[in-house]
Fold:
Amino acid sequence: MSKHATIIGAGLVGSLLATLLAQRGFEVEVFERRPDPRVQGFLGGRSINLALAERGLNALRQAGLADTVLQHAMMMRGRMVHPLDGEVNLQRYGLDDSEVIRSVSRGGLNILLLDAAEQAGARLHFDAGLVGADFDAGTITLAGADGVQRQHAAGLLLGCDGAGSALRAAMQQSLNLGERIEPLGHGYKELEIPPPYAGGFAFEPNALHIWPRGNYMCIALPNTEGNFTVTLFLPGEGSYPSFATLPDATAAREFFEQQFADALALMPTFDEDWAAHPVGQLATLYLDRWHLGGQALLLGDAAHAIVPFHGQGMNAGFEDAVELARLLSAQPDDATAAFAEFEMLRKPNADAIAAMSIANYIEMRDGVADPRYLLKRELAAALTARIPTHFRSHYRMVSFTTWPYAYCNARDRQQDALMGALLDGHARLDEINLAAAAERVRSALPALPTDP
Structure:
């Protein structure tokens, strides 16, 4: 197997993979169709702030980048829920400040990772879009911004070029990858809460703010500069409210006055932002096959794009990069075996986090204000305190461990069924015999894995 790797896409996953492979002695070249964001500014697709959790941090540690990234991240302790009626309340993600997620800017993180890849020895090429591939010959065709095409000998060909992957399209011409795209039916629009004139933050900075409204919601993530990135998630079509029924900023402002008045009061450029930012689309990508023998492999969003409601898209892609770098280093003479093992190990986990991300959207927009959900949270906290070796909440397993997503999903279903049975006929936690409940869970479930 050649130690020459060609990566298509210089986004988050591509730039981290380039760093990891270059650190392991690979000759790495990265081709990106967009201009260099360090020169032209960040022009990427979705700019929703990213939630950095333990999986992503673990990957960054292996590249020696975690401490640097954390300097540019904002801690978020939990969801700060803004009900339509009632008091704002914080629902913690973990037990304490040792279990938090962090808000990071997509553009800022991408630039940091590009610098790291270059420093590790990778060669980066911008304004170089993939327009064709000859997999048998091991060559790709690239086109510059001026349309001039050139050939490149690929070596290991790795696709990190996102949900609209050009490499995936090229592979589809040689092999049916079993591609399925399932639209969510909901879109998103980004807005902003700027810092107050006096400085600081408009409201609590160390939380993910959420306005749950049943079939839709608004969220706000903090940035180190003092502003919040606000994102409205709403059905694309259908009856009011939907993006189809909000044709302009005037209609949108009236909607916000009814549903998100406290947020709107902090958005002085609401009308301009609404007019300037397009409605983004949300969908889940599934593939039956991620690789073409030992000739090409897809990873990250190019293989398994998901909706953003568990904050795990980047984290899952970073896990991909770490796993692939490990396998390529361990099997330097057999790309086919390395690619096949990568798909075998990662695909069940990609499918699991895709399912959990869709489920988390329902929880965020509706469940966080539901009394049954809140009671279940109370019971989960009580069981965690009594039997931490046998019970951990779904969110804590996904966000604060590196246990496989498929394991977390299966374990959560088992725990949820048990909690449902324990809560039947009860409206308050003090009605439940917690000692008996803990013993029932302990006898029904094996011990959790030891933390990595």
